[in-house]
Design a protein that fits this description.
By secondary structure, the protein is α+β, with helices and mostly antiparallel strands. About 55% of the residues lie in helices and about 10% in strands. It folds into 4 domains: about 55 residues, no CATH class; about 55 residues, no CATH class; about 100 residues, Nucleotidyltransferase, domain 5 (2-Layer Sandwich); about 170 residues, no CATH class. It is elongated. The chain contains 22 helices and 9 strands. InterPro entries: RNaseH-like_sf.
Length: about 450
């Protein structure tokens, strides 16, 4: 009676991960040796595999018996509970680095730190969340779900697209977002579609259309939102309108009814920015000049601190501001007023101070202008903070803008000045500066 042949079973495959099924059930292919090295298991099964593994040919290919255990551990057994737990751990860390904005390099160092802190944990010792692995998981796995937007599935008929220019060194970054209203899932939703590098108005509009097409949102887009720079919406002159992003997008979408949504915060910024051009004192330039005079010079800062002690004023770190957000001058003016007497003594006591700053502090009404601007900017600042809340509605924003408009009309009708400014004006009149006080009041 002939002997029954042995076959390469799943049990043998699990026990000997160096091998896989060969040309038929009675053979196994060695994954360590040269490709096409088949070992017959028909006669003795596992013993045939052991005999091949003990051969000089196999040992040479393996690089020594000492590598056998390490290779087994590296390959692992897919589908087991341990491998699933390891995969979950590998995915958890990259998932948490995204909202924390951690770098890929820090993720690699974190996995090394875990292995040192938890030397007895088996999963941690196999944990290999390197920089390249973290980057691959975030870009190839999580990003696909983050930008997956299917408005048809949720029954959303319309959406609006919004962009905002951001310059990173010499590169112009343009984030593309959409907003839509989903009453089934909490109301107003905002999602990031893309982050692009663009140079001109045409590039921006083309990128917007491309992003909308990619997510099948082209026919659903009914509004465009951007800041109030000329690139987005242009000036009032019709000749420049055709070159704006809004005009190019309207042309690309072939939708004349596309709604342009201006940034309400920028409206307030531009309002006070252009209004202060009528003043004699250039507050923005003064803040920048003072900040640049001190911020990298330790000797000058130490000297200013001594002046603060002399006039009994607490030293405060001087602030600059963002040129695209004019009202960021508000904290800078606050600090300047708190240290005005010390700064005035400092600059007027220098042998060769900057001419602009010397003229400013010699001006009899310089502090008056600062206090007047502080009072006016405070009203704008508080209303912009209301508009920049995370959860806000169109009705609330319109109410805020109307409130600012009402405040400005009332102040103009009443020739409003803060109590501090009125008191300082009264002191100036007593000093005989009637003409200067009248000019300040008229301005």
């Amino acid at each position: 009676m002939p002997k029954r042949k042995c076959v390469f079973t799943d049990k043998l495959k699990q026990k000997y991960p160096h091998f896989r099924k060969g040309r038929d059930d009675y053979e196994a292919e060695c994954l360590v040796c040269k490709a096409g090295t088949f070992v017959s298991v028909a006669h003795k099964g596992a013993s045939d595999l052991e005999y091949h593994m003990s051969s000089e040919k196999h040992k040479k290919a393996l690089g020594g018996d000492s590598w056998s255990a390490k290779l087994t551990e590296f390959l692992g057994t897919p589908g087991t509970k341990a491998e699933d737990a390891l995969a979950a751990a590998d995915s958890t860390l990259p998932l948490h680095t995204i909202p924390s904005c951690n770098s890929y390099k820090s993720a690699g160092r974190t996995s090394e730190l875990f292995r040192k802190i938890f030397p007895d944990a088996e999963i941690v010792q196999k944990f290999s969340n390197t920089r390249s692995r973290t980057e691959a998981l975030e870009n190839s796995v999580f990003a696909q779900h983050a930008v997956s937007i299917d408005l048809e599935e949720h029954g959303i008929p319309f959406c609006g697209v919004a962009i905002d220019d951001r310059s990173h060194r010499a590169v112009k970054m343009v984030p593309v977002l959409i907003q839509y209203y989903d009453y089934r899932n909490g109301g107003l939703k905002t999602k990031l579609l893309d982050l692009q590098e663009t140079a001109t108005e045409t590039d921006v509009s083309d990128s917007l259309v491309k992003a909308l097409k990619k997510h099948r949102l082209l026919q659903k887009c009914v509004a465009f939102a951007g800041d109030n720079c000329n690139t987005m919406f242009g000036e009032l002159r019709q000749g420049e309108e055709a070159r704006t992003v809004f005009a190019q997008l309207k042309k690309s979408l072939q939708r004349e009814t596309l709604i342009g949504v201006y940034c309400p915060a920028h409206i307030l910024h531009n309002c006070i920015h252009h209004g202060t051009d009528a003043l004699e004192v250039d507050v923005e330039n003064i803040i920048l000049k003072i900040y640049q005079y001190f911020h990298i010079y330790a000797v000058r800062t130490e000297s200013l601190q001594e002046y603060c002690e002399f006039v009994e004023v607490e030293y405060k770190r001087l602030l600059s501001h963002s040129k695209t957000r004019w009202l960021s001058l508000f904290p800078g003016i606050t600090k300047l007023l708190q240290m005005h007497s010390a700064l005035k003594s400092f600059f007027l006591g220098q042998s060769n101070p900057p001419a602009v700053l010397k003229s400013f502090f010699e001006h009899e009404f310089s502090e008056l202008y600062l206090w007047h601007m502080h009072s006016l900017m405070n009203a704008f600042h508080l209303h912009i903070e209301e508009m920049e809340r995370e959860n806000n509605s169109l009705a609330e924003v319109m109410k805020t803008l109307d409130s600012v408009h009402t405040i400005l009309l009332d102040r103009r009708a009443q020739n409003f000045m803060s109590l501090t400014v009125k008191g300082m004006l009264a002191d100036k009149r007593k000093e005989g500066l009637e003409e200067g006080c009248d000019a300040f009041s008229d301005a």
